[in-house]
């Protein structure tokens, strides 16, 4: 019941995405099976996290974020008198930037795919900057001619311009599933985010989030390094988050070296 109340808060008050709610539900349910959530101590939380060495740094950080969010809510709701998650710290991520942006070869592979769905996913991610869950749940009602209305994290709505090539591909996809409503239909609704990940990993050799990183980096460079435009394009609440998506590549370093050259 306690977890259900928290999840309802995330969904109804914070307006978090369904994927975020499911993820946090999974972590809290696993924790509750081993630790009393109300009586938990900081040491118990740290010990529980340490008992899962198979978790990647990103997973650990997602767990820490979940516990911090849950206990902040629990304190405000009067469920607990203290916050045992205060001492939890995220893991520092090292040397991950280069691996998180799709290469031109990977994008070319996606656009050359014999599967229409993969081609559309590639364009939505690398051109439109959509997150994987935004791609999976894209519906025909989200499109108004040359624009897509995309509901992202935190209930933030943004508009994404549809290029002629993407528009034609979306039209073709709708013609393939005329009665579904969803652009990527599955039994009883739309495909899962895992299905989209499987498509890109199998045919592009990368994850769909790397396509979004490509979109953010490209928009930043082609708008004259306008971080604010890039922020709105990606639907971020913070410019600091957007900065993570702006990758420094070899040609940028060459330009930097030329700019700083002492010789005339």
Automatic annotation (TrEMBL):
This protein's record includes keyword Transit peptide: no
CDD domains cross-referenced by the UniProt entry: DNA_BRE_C (cd00397)
Span of domain Core-binding (CB): 1-75
Chain ranges of the Tyr recombinase domain: 97-258
SUPFAM superfamilies found in the cross-reference section: DNA breaking-rejoining enzymes (SSF56349)
Family according to the record: Belongs to the 'phage' integrase family.
The protein's name: Tyrosine-type recombinase/integrase
The species this protein was found in: Microbacterium helvum
């Amino acid at each position: 019941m306690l977890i259900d109340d928290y999840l309802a808060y995330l969904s109804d008050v914070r307006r978090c995405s369904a994927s975020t709610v499911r993820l946090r539900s999974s972590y809290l349910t696993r924790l509750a099976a081993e630790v009393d959530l109300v009586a938990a101590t900081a040491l118990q939380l740290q010990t529980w996290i340490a008992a899962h060495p198979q978790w990647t740094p990103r997973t650990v950080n997602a767990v820490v974020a979940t516990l911090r969010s849950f206990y902040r809510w629990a304190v405000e709701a009067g469920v607990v008198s203290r916050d045992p998650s205060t001492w939890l710290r995220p893991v520092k991520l090292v040397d991950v930037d280069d691996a998180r942006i799709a290469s031109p070869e990977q994008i070319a592979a996606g656009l050359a795919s014999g599967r229409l769905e993969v081609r559309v996913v590639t364009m939505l991610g690398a051109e439109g900057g959509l997150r994987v869950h935004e791609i999976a749940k894209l519906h025909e009602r989200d499109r108004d001619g040359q624009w897509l209305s995309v509901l992202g994290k935190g209930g933030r709505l943004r508009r994404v311009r549809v290029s002629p090539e993407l528009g034609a591909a979306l039209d073709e996809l709708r013609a393939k599933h005329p009665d579904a409503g969803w652009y990527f239909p599955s039994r009883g609704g739309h495909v899962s985010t895992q299905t989209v990940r499987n498509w890109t990993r199998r045919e592009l050799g990368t994850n769909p989030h790397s396509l979004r990183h490509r979109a953010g980096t490209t928009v930043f460079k082609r708008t004259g390094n306008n971080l604010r435009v890039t922020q709105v394009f990606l639907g971020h609440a913070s410019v600091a988050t957007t900065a993570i998506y702006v990758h420094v590549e070899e040609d940028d370093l060459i330009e930097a070296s030329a700019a700083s050259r002492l010789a005339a």
